[in-house]
Every structure is written in C-alpha cells, then in structure tokens.
Design a protein that fits this description.
Layout lengths: L1 H13 L1 H21 L5 H26 L7 E3 L2 E3 L5 H26 L5 H11 L2 H10 L2 E5 L2 E5 L3 E6 L17 E3 L9 E4 L6 E3 L5 H13 L10 H12 L15 H19 L9 H28 L3 H4 L4
C-alpha cells in the first residue's frame, strides 16, 4: 500500500502543473454551476468544504508516507546535480484551491440570486486567496538547487537565483547552526550574479526538505576547486561528495530542528475539527459567524500540517547519514 501511494504521489508531483491546472478548472466549473443553480447549492457547498479537509488529511498522510522514501540530498542527472523538489507544496495547494472554491461559492450564489454582496465574504475570499501569491509560483516551478559545471541555479518561492562559480569566493563561510533551510554564500564578484522574480536574496540559497549540509559542502568544494567541476553530474562524483561531506568539519553541520509533540499536533487537528463542525452546523448565536469560524478552522489545520511536516523533517535530520541515503 505504501509503495502504491509513493508511486502515485511521485507521478502527481512530477505532473504538478497539470494536476493544479485541472483542479483549478474543475473547481471553476463547479463554482460557476453552483452560482447559476436555481436553488441554493448546499450539497455542493458542503461537498467542497468536506473535500478541503479530507484532502488536507489524506494528502498529509500521503506526504508523510512518501517522505520515508524521498531522497534528501542530490540526484545525478547527466551534467547536473539536482536537489529533489519537495512534494508537500502540491499537497498544500490542492486543498487550498478547494477552500477558495467553497468560500467563493458561499457568497456568489447569494450575490447573484439575492442581489446582496456581503463585505465579510469578499474579505474572506481575499484572505484565502492572498497566500497563494507566497507559495504558488514555487509550487508551480518546484523549489530546489541545481548545480552544473557553469554554476548554481536556485529556484525559490518567488524567483530564481543564478550564481556562476566564478562569482563565488574560494573560501565559503561556515553555515550557522540555526539556519536550517538556507546556505550562506560569499562572493568575490557579486556583479556576475543574476536573478529573476522578486524577494530573491543574493547572499544565500534556500533548500526545502533537502540535505542542507551536503549541498553546502558541495558548494564550498566546487567553489574552491575549479578542476573538480568537470565531474559534476556523474554518479561517481556524487559518491565522492557524500564521502567528503561525512568528513567535513562539524562547523558546517546544522542543529536538528525541535520536534513538535504529537499532543500538540492532535490539539491543532481537534481545534480545526471543532471549528469546522461549528461552521457546517452552527449552534445558536454562531449563524452569522460561519465565515470567521471557517477561516479559523483553515488556520488551525494549516498549523497542524506545518507541525506535522516539521516533525517528519526533524526526525529525518536526526537519522544517521547512512540510513538517510540507504535504498537510493
């Protein structure tokens, strides 16, 4: 069962653009159908909200299973070392789409048939849609680092950083222990660095769900040894990198992330479930607060998923190096 989930989810992650596009089109059609339906589409509305939370739970479980098999370092791809793209962004985007569809449908039918536009509904649509701008470009492209013989390409949430090897200093800084998801860079010629997009920091690389230490060691190694860059992308060179990384000074190691407790995660989920029940079946006194309770449920669920992901990544960080790379 776990292997089947891993296979299907890996396929969905590779085809993430197609999956997200089809999901958005289907939801647009559902919202349009519900908006023009002659009677209030309560069944469709409840179905969208139920699908939102069902997807959150199902995809969180799927990602948790897949994370046990996902590589965390670099993949040899001919002339490039490519870090694996994290799949959890797709697991976040899909239920987010459903939540936006449910919120949009909740007010669009009323606006069309009762000629009443609720400002609270408009605010909820904006609040639910705005976070897409923070991670959807990264989910669409994939977050990660590619190293070639010419340099480094870092695909980030809102842009891409291109760093030629010639721009880097031969001596790279030790990585701060608290900076778990980033790699600091030192330049001799920063004018060679290029970037596209917005909110791209030129002095660091960002990694998500990857072996930061291995990638940081590789950057420092190739910055200091131009002759070694010719072997980038080969399987033999990758094995050399792994061996070299295990013997590097501990100053490059990052501190393991604190593991959120299971009780805390269960508490987030319980709170989200309670808020969802109040949203769907509001008790007396809450009938005018369904938008706010629905928003609260979504926020609590996001917190639960974030802690779940942090727990999974932190536990992997504390595994010995040989077990992280086994089965590759």
């Amino acid at each position: 069962m776990a292997d089947m989930i891993t296979t299907w989810w890996a396929l969905a992650a590779r085809r993430r653009r197609t999956v997200m596009t089809l999901t958005a089109l289907c939801l647009t059609a559902a919202v349009a159908t519900g908006t023009f339906w002659p009677t209030e589409p309560l069944g469709l509305l409840l179905g969208l909200f139920a699908a939102t939370f069902g997807l959150f739970l199902a995809l969180a479980i799927a990602v948790r299973i897949v994370q046990r098999h996902e590589p965390t370092g670099l993949q040899a791809d001919g002339a490039v070392f490519r870090s694996p793209r994290p799949s959890y962004l797709l697991a976040l985007a899909l239920p987010h789409f459903f939540a936006i569809g449910g919120i949009a449908l909740a007010g669009s039918w009323t606006a069309r048939h009762e000629h009443s536009l609720d400002p609270g509904w408009l605010l909820a649509v904006v609040l639910f849609t705005a976070p897409l701008a923070l991670y959807l470009p990264g989910a669409w492209r994939g977050i990660g680092v590619d190293m070639s013989r010419q340099g480094i390409r870092s695909q980030q949430y809102l842009g891409t950083l291109h760093v030629p090897w010639e721009a880097l200093a031969a001596s790279q800084p030790d990585q701060p222990a608290e900076a778990r998801g980033e790699i600091r860079l030192a330049y001799t010629d920063p004018s060679l660095v290029r970037h596209t997009g917005v909110a791209v920091r030129r002095d660091r690389l960002y990694v998500e769900g990857e072996d930061r230490d291995l990638i940081a060691d590789a950057v420092a190694y190739y910055a200091a040894d131009p002759a070694a860059r010719a072997a980038i992308g080969s399987t033999e060179e990758y094995e050399n990198l792994r061996l070299m990384s295990r013997t590097v000074s501990a100053h490059r190691r990052h501190a393991p992330e604190k593991i959120p407790s299971v009780i805390k995660i269960i508490g987030w989920y319980a709170g989200a479930g309670g808020a969802l029940l109040i949203t769907v079946w509001p008790p007396p006194g809450f009938t005018d607060h369904q938008v706010s309770t629905g928003f609260t449920a979504a926020c609590l669920l996001l917190a639960a998923c974030a802690d779940w992901h942090t727990r999974a990544v932190a536990k992997r960080q504390r595994q010995p190096a040989h077990s992280q790379h086994s089965g590759r």
